[in-house]
Amino acid sequence: MRLDKFLAQSYVGKRKEVRIYIKEGKVKVNGEVITIPAIDIDERLDVIEYLDERVYYTEKVYYMFNKPAGYITAKRDASHKTVFDFFDDMNMNGVFHVGRLDKDTEGLLLFTNDGEFEHRLMHPEKHMEKTYFFWALGSLSEENIKKLEEGVYINKGEILTKPARIEVQKSGVCKDFKDEIDSLCNIDSNQHNQQVVSGYLTISEGRKHQVKRMLKALGCHVVYLNRIAIGEVKLDESLEKGQYRELTELEIQKLLQNQI
Questions:
Q1: Residue 82 in contact with residue 73, Cβ under 8 Å?
Q2: Which of 76, 97, 106, 216 is the most buried (most CB within 10 A)?
Q3: pLDDT digits over 62-77, tens only?
């Protein structure tokens, strides 16, 4: 591995910064000052020091997490609990969330310390698909379903959303699905006679509150939202809310390959 890449991946600094540190003579390899950023080192055997303190190689990590509602997607917050509260027993130095979910949204959230992995998934030009399960107050006509599939305007001044895929699961009166909905979220008693609809919506963008705003544009108010998949990688059903596990090598490859 190149020396500058090793230092950047070990969080000594950004790639441009560590190149400067190396050229300034602040880095040693096996006790010898090295001033060439591109020199190859053995990250597992060589002793690398920055300002006379040893730098240890950091393995890349990739986690799948089942986010519960009520937690914000942030490293820390003065007023709210965050998703990182579930990783207290782990060394999360350098680890960050890939994208985010709203406080009241549940489901699949990824964590990594691999910046390139995050970039390939989240860059707007990559169009990574994300699938959500929802319950909403309201109904979806065939005309509105077609609008979702072709694109809708979700706010004044914003361009049309990219075409989405939708699969309606259930529709009817709220009280007919009361037990099912109550197990997921709280519905006021005065809403029990309202129309409700549930289904799966797949989008390939990452606008703020996008699923909620797309459905709101068609007269539906989302009361429950759960991200169940990113690309072809689905949330592990064995994970309870607040639990996590490492991604498999196959899942990592699927995420990197399934971009449209």
A1: yes
A2: 106
A3: 999 999 999 999 998 9
